[in-house]
Amino acid sequence: MTQSLTLRRPDDWHLHLRDGAMLQGVLPETARHFARAIIMPNLVPPVVTGAQAAAYRDRILAALPEGARFEPLMVLYLTEDSDPADIRAAHASGLVKSVKLYPAGATTNSQSGVRNFDKVRPVLEAMAEIGLPLCVHGEVTASEVDIFDREAVFIDTVLDPLRRATPGLRVVMEHITTSQGVDYARAGGPDLGATITTHHLIINRNHILAGGIKPHYYCLPVAKRETHRQALRAAATSGDACFFLGTDSAPHVDALKEHACGCAGCFTATNTMSCLAHVFEEMGALDRLEAFTSLNGPAFYRLPVNEATIRLVKHDAPHAYPDKIYTEAGPVTVFNPGFPLHWTVEA
Ligand code: DOR
Ligand code: ZN
Predict the structure, then answer these.
(1) Residue 142 pLDDT > 80
(2) Of residues 11, 191, 248, 316, which has the active-site annotation?
(3) From CA 156, how far away is CA 146, in angstroms rounded?
(4) CATH number of 10-306
(5) Res. 106 pLDDT band, cuts 50 70 90
(6) Atom number of ligand 1 nearest to Cα 264
(7) Strand 324-327, strand 330-333: pairing
(8) Where along the chain do its domains lie?
(9) Atom of ligand 1 nearest to the CA of 251
């Protein structure tokens, strides 16, 4: 018997689209299924000002395929020189939906991120006042901290003090990868949310390292041990309002992934909904997929839910999806979940 499921059209609360030829190549993959996405600002140079965000938004809209209905939700990159007045204006105009905090050196193009949190205090206070969420890449960068501990250490030494020092600041813990992240998000009250990626529900660190190194599974924060993956699965499928989908789909051309110093990022835009339906079915939680992909995110961001719907259909035969997307910037490998995908998105 064919199984099917109708959901409100999903949103992606954490997405990398890049720019130029890469943007042109990857945008259709997201726009095909998603209504809106929070667009990460870690371009080179980063999207710091309202004017830069407006220009980037125009480039995204210009790159959309004919007839696509997709709304980019713009984000400003927080630097130590960010101007509170500019951020207030960009929020007031409706252009900007969040500000992204990258600790300097934490990940791809994070060199302009924050080193001294005292320098961004006026911005954080303005954001708390106007209710503009701060999206946080939650990893410390100190070389003496083990890469698998960087999220848990960040929560204790940076995030918790920062939230205590800025009452009312609304925060999204981006792409959580640990049970500590899950527990902290759960306990944080209505001003704290957490995104979970598709790939962190599917891979643990063995997938990256056992039996040969798999560069296409390398991302940041790096996938952790299996107990953490189980905690993320329980969180995502719980229906709890604080957890919502942020794919962190992060395209890099194959030449830079399959490299002696490979870039971090999994490209999941193409098959995310098929992967998620598989995971939620496995967890006996298909009835909570819509909360994760389409309801909890808009509630946190205080935006209306989408009226349009998508239909997921489970087929007996596995669904064939492309191994790679061929962009003008070069080929980008699509995330391979390691199991056949039977769910497809129709209409
Ligand atoms: O894996 C990742 N890739 N993590 C990030 O935080 C950034 C992203 C990218 O921009 O490539
Ligand atoms: Zn990201």
Answers:
(1) yes
(2) 248
(3) 15
(4) 3.20.20.140
(5) confident
(6) 1
(7) antiparallel
(8) 10-306
(9) 11
